[in-house]
Amino acid sequence: MSAALSRRAVLGGTAALVLLAACGRGSENEAHMPPPAPRVRTVWRDHPDGPIPARGDEGVPFVLRASGPVAGPVVRGGALDAGLGDERAASYVNQDLGTAVHRVGARFGFVPGPGTSDDGSLCLAAWRGALPPSDPGVIEAPVHLVATPQRWILSLAVGSQLAEIASGRFDRPLPTDGTPLVMDVTLTGDRAEIALPDGTTTSARDARIPSLPAPVACWESYRHAPGGAAVRLYETWAA
Q1: What is the pTM assigned to this prediction?
Q2: Spatial separation of the C-alpha atoms in residues 103 and 188, rounded to whole Å
Q3: What is the pLDDT of residue 32?
Q4: Going by fewer Cβ within 10 Å, which terminus of the chain is more open, N or C?
Q5: What's the superkingdom here (predicted)?
Q6: Would you tell me how many other CB atoms lie within 10 Å of the CB of residue 168?
Q7: CA nearest to 126, candidates 144, 112, 147, 139
Q8: How far apart are CA 229 and CA 238, in angstroms?
Q9: pLDDT digits over 200-211, tens only?
Q10: Residue 70: DSSP 8-state
Q11: How far apart are the first and last CA of the chain?
C-alpha cells in the first residue's frame, strides 16, 4: 500500500507501506561516489531582510507554492523563513535545474513552536510533472526526504502517491534553538545516500528511483498541527 501525497500519511506513521525493494544502511564495503557539485546554491545570510528574491545566487528563478496560511517565504535575520501559520501549512521553494536532480541539501535549523514534536519538518524533494500541493497533473518524485526534530522518513512518489523506502528515529531529538544542521541526499542509480541532520549517514535502495528523473529541486517547510517546529533555512543547494 502506498500513502496519498500528504504529510498526514508521511508524519502520522499509521500507514503500513509495502517496500518494493531492499533498503537500509549501506555496507562499509560498498563503493561510494563523491556527491556532485551543486549547480544551484543560495546562502541566505547574504540577503537582506525582505521577501524572497526572484532568483537564487546562481541566477535560477525560484518557483513558489504554498498550502494553508503562509505569510512567507521571507528573508529574516540571515535565514529564509516560510512564515507558516500556527496550523497545518506548507511552503514549497522550488528551482528548476532543467535536467535531472541528483542531489539536494540544506543547512537549516529548527526553532520553537514548541518544536519538540513531529508536527514540524523540513522536506528535501525533487519533482517531475506537477508541483505540489495542487498543480494539475501527476506528481512524481525519486526522493522525498523528511526530517522532524525526532525522526526522518525517505519516500518516493509515483502517480501522486507517496511510498516509504526507509525511516528512523534520532537517538536524541534534534535541537530546536536554531542550531545549524545539515541534511543532504544524493541519488546514484537506484541508491539514495543520505547525510542526516544528527551527523549520521545512511543509504537506501529502490529500483524505481532511476525511473523517475526529476528536474525540480524543492525545499519544503511544513507544520502539521499547532505548536509544531518551524524551519529556518540558512543555505540551500542542489545538483
Answers
A1: 0.87
A2: 9
A3: 53
A4: N
A5: Bacteria
A6: 16
A7: 144
A8: 24
A9: 999 999 999 999
A10: B
A11: 31
